[in-house]
Amino acid sequence: MAHQIEYIHDDIKRSCFEDQFFKADVLFEDHLLVWIISGETRIVQADQTYVFGAGDTLLFPRYLLATVLNYPKHGLSHKSVAMHLKLERLKDYYNKNEPQSQGEPIPPPSFRTFEQHPLLKSCLSSLIPYFELKEKLPGAIASLKIEEAIHILRTIEPSIDHMLANFAEPGKIDIANFMEKNYMFNMPMEKFGYLTGRSLTTFKRDFKKTFQTTPQKWLTQKRLKLAHYQIREKKRKPSEVYLETGFENLSHFGYAFKKFFGYAPTEGFR
């Protein structure tokens, strides 16, 4: 079994990765609350990598681009429990509970880490026995557990309402600034367009006007230059950087690197 996902409810799941690692460039349509049971998780955002382990709790905001890498650790597979905080549920919640941060400036979305906070740990670990059920968790119980998680998040970090009570869709933003920060994420062009507030056609038109080249050519060159910097300046191995710089396959990365720079990435490492 390399990868298994179990749902006890449409909004609550448990994941298990037994391979050497699992990598995905993610863009969630819902906020996602994740508790790591075992293994290690690395999150790559722009030029920074964060590492988390067993017992840590993370909150991913919707429409945030990130690369997630899950690894086994200490002989244990990577396991986690995740809870989707969907918009309709949050809208219903905030109809009954006044946001605590109304009128304040809204900061840019970013993932949150709550490490091993006892309240969140207790809430999410209490879901584990429900995965032994032969039927799905009753909706009323699932709703209580999700509402409990929302209450805890707001207790730990009152300013979290900036994220959870913000129901706006992405608006049109500066394409150059966005792409310079997010080029290493391997996403469909439609997603890049959506996140910058554009249709695919408008995105390609504005991109060509801004960068004087096509999105795919620009993305490949930016990713290769980032990998080159990591290998030559940071002395990292090609096998350590190709996933973090937007490539899916090591051999394809090596071919593209050599074609662009004139030598193999392993030569740059030595």
TrEMBL record:
Domain HTH araC/xylS-type: 173-270
Domain of life: Bacteria
UniProt keyword list: DNA-binding, Transcription, Transcription regulation
Protein name, as recorded: Helix-turn-helix domain-containing protein
